[in-house]
Design brief:
mainly alpha; two-stranded antiparallel sheet; two-stranded parallel ribbon; 17 helices; about 0% strand; transmembrane helix
Length: about 550
Amino acid sequence: MLGLVFDSAFEMWAFWAAVLALGVFLLGGLFIVTRPQPEVIGHPKGLFLLFLAEMWERFSYYGMRALLIFYLVQHWLFTDSEASIIYGAYTALVYIAPVVGGYLADRYLGQRKAVLFGAILLTFGHFFMAFEGTGGQDDPTINIFWLALALIIVGSGFLKANISVMVGQLYPRTDVRRDPAYTIFYMGINVGAATASIICGFLGQTYGWEYGFGLAGIGMLIGTIFFVLGKPLLLGKGEPKDPEKLKGGKEFGIYGAGLAMVALCWVAIQYQDLVGWVLGIFGLGLVAYVISIAVTKLHPHERDRIFAAMFLIIVSVVFWALFEQAGSSLNLFTDRHVDTQGVNASMFQSINAIYIVLLAPVFAMLWQGLARKGAEPSTPMKFGLAVIQVGLGFLVLVWGASSVGVEVPTPVIFIFLIYLLHTTGELCLSPVGLSAMNRLSPAHMASLVMGTWFFASATGNFAAGLIAAATGAEGLDEAAGKQVVLDVYWTAVGIGAGVMVIAPFVKKLMHLDTLKDEGSLEGAAEAGIEPQEAGVHPTTKPSA
C-alpha cells in the first residue's frame, strides 16, 4: 500500500471523503443485493446490482478522463493543441459508439450480453492505459495507448447504450416507481464520477500514471464481476428478443464486429482529421435527411416541430463545444495557473458531478414551480440561457485571472464559479433538450431525431478540442491568447442572447397547443443527472 502523502489538508480531506463515500455506497449496495427478499426499500434488487455496476463503470471512465489531458501532454509529450484535438476526437467517438451498441443490442444481442461485452472491453482498455512505456511519441508503447482508447470507446458504446435501459426493463411501463428508480441508479453515476476524479486523479498525478489508470481498471473489473455474479437478480431482463438470430456462430460474429470497431477506432483516434470529416459530412447529411422527411412526408405542424428540433440541436453543438473544455483546456489551466491550495488539478473534475447532485433536484422543483404559475421559460429560452451561462463562466474566469495579474495564480474560487455556471447551464439544456427531442418528433421518427441529437453531442465534443487547441495554441503571446479566449466566449454570450431573442418564434414552430400524447421517451426520467445520458436507446412507451 502506498504511504500516502498529501500536499495540503484540503487534498487530504477531499481524498478520504471520496474513499469514504465510495466505501459506504459499495457496502450499502452489497448489503442490499445479498438480502433474501426479492425487493428492498420497494425496489427489485436488480436495480441495486445495476447501480453498483454503473457506479464502477463511471468510476473507471471519469478516473481516466480526469488524467487523460495531462497524460497526453506530460507523458506522451504532445503539444497542448495536439492533445486537445486528440481529446476532442476521443470524446466525440465515445458519443457516436452508443448508436451502434444500442442498435446491435436491439436487433441481436439483447441488453445484458451487450453490457457484459462492453464491460469486458472497458476492463481491458483501462488496464492497457496503465502501460506507460518510457514516454514520448517515439515510444512504441504508444500503440498500446491508442488501443486502450479504442477499447474504451467501443466498450462505452456497448455498455452506456444499454445499461440504463435495463433499469426500465425491471418495471412495468406504467409503474410509478420508474422515475425514483432512475434517480437511485443515477446516484451511482455521480458517486462514481465524483469519487474517481478525486481518487484516481490524486494517485495518477502524485504517484504515477499507472496507479491512477490501474485503479480505474480495477474499478471496472469489480463492476464486471458484480454484473456477472448478479445475473439472477435481473429476472431474465435484457435477454435477446429473438435468440434464433444468435445461433450458428452469429453471436460471435457480432462480437467480432465489435472488435472490428475497435480496430477502426484505433485508426481514427490517431488521425483526428478523419473524425472531423466524418462528423461534418455525415452530420450535414443526417440533418438534411431529417429535414427532407419533414418537408415531404409530415403534416405542417409536425414539419415545423422538426425545424424547431433541428434549431435546438444546432444550438446544443455550441453549448457542448464550450462545456467540454472541462477535461482539456480548463484542466490544463487549473494545473498551470490556479492557486489550487495544494490540490491536484485533476481532482477538480469532481466539482461538476457534485454540483449536479446538489442542483438537479432544485432545478426540477424550479421548473415545476414556474410551470404552475405559468412562468416557466420556453425550451428555446432555456437553451439561450444555457449558452449564455457557459460563455459567462469562462468570462468570469478570464476576469478573475486578470484581476490578480498575469504573474499571480488565479484564486481557486473562480474554478468553483466557472463549474457552477456551467452546471446550471447544463441543467437548462441537457434534460430539457432530451425532453424536447421526444416531444417534437413523431413517434415513428423518435429514434432518428434522438440519433441526430447525440450526433450533435459528438460534434460538439470534437469542436471542443478545436477550440481548446485555438485558445491555447502554441506560438500565441499572452495578449493574443487572451484575445482569442475573449473572442470565443463573448461570441458564445452573443449567440445565447440571439437564441433568447428569437425564442418566441421557435416556440411558435413547436405548436405546443396541438401536441398529442404519443408516448414518452424511455430513459428520459434520468436526464440531467449526467450530460446526454438518457435517451441513448430511444424507444417510446405509453405514458404512465
